[in-house]
Hints:
With 60 residues, the chain is mainly alpha-helical. The protein has helices at 3-23, 35-48, 50-59; strands at residues 26-28, 31-33.
Amino acid sequence: MKNTQKLTLTAMLIAIGTISSNMFYIPLGFTKLFPVQHFLNVVSAVLLGPYYAVAQAFCV
C-alpha cells in the first residue's frame, strides 16, 4: 500500500472514530467505554502498521 493510501485510510478511520465516539458508548460507573474506537485501533494496526495505528489512536 502506498503512503498516500495509508494516510487517506488513517484520516478516514480518524473521522469514523471521532463521529462514533459521540454516538456509541457504554456508561460504566464514572467512565465511558468506546468499543468502536478500540475496534478501529485494532483494524488500523492490522492494515496499516503500528506507527499509523498509534497516530490514529492519538488523533481520535
